[in-house]
Amino acid sequence: MFDNATLNAAFGSIASRWRRYKDGAQTRHELSRLRAEEIDAIAASCELSAKHFIEVMSRGPHAADELAAVMRALGMEFPPSQSGEQSMLNRMKVACADCREKSTCRGSIRNGAIAQGYEAFCNNADAINVLKIRSLRSSLECRK
């Protein structure tokens, strides 16, 4: 019928989805305890509307984990070591959390094809390319 590997993969997938749901529910509960003014202030510091902030946070603490995996698969540091990149990194995390191509992304990382194809589906492709250029410039300046 089913071999152990297939069953383990299925149970692992179910457990992973359950953890994501539980993490999101916990975050939604914590957000519900904040006053509207607190949410507005936190959202503004993230350069988001309160509604978008709640949507992103409701996806749980691992909603943007693919960003680190993509950058590492491309041979980049995560988080970027360049100073002044925190605002860009925050926007990249939000774009990753909002992404509808997570399965494509994960599959490309898993099969080693991310470097050849991320620009076709990744909302962060332009920002990643900017970081690549900045990193290259920085390394060239250090050699002078």
Q: How would a crystallographer describe the biggest sheet?
A: none
Radius of gyration: 18 Å
Order of helices and strands, N to C? HHHHHHHH
Helix amount, in percent?
A: over 70%
- Please work out how many helical segments DSSP would assign: 8
The fraction of residues assigned to DSSP E strands is under 5%
Per the principal axes of the C-alpha atoms, what is the gross shape?
A: flat
Oligomer: single chain
Structural class: mainly alpha
Provide mean pLDDT, rounded. 85
Q: Detail the poorly predicted runs.
A: none
Distance between the termini: 64 Å
What is the number of E strands?
Answer: 0
Account of the protein in words:
The chain is mainly alpha-helical and 144 residues long. The chain folds into 2 domains: 1-62; 64-144, no CATH class. It is 74% helix and 0% strand. The chain has helices at 4-32, 36-45, 50-58, 65-73, 86-98, 102-110, 114-121, 125-143. Helix 2 (36-45) crosses helix 3 (50-58) and helix 6 runs antiparallel to helix 7. It is flat. The N and C termini lie far apart (64 Å). The mean pLDDT is 85.
Write the layout of secondary structure elements.
Elements: H1 4-32, H2 36-45, H3 50-58, H4 65-73, H5 86-98, H6 102-110, H7 114-121, H8 125-143
Helix pairs in contact: 2-3, 4-6, 6-7
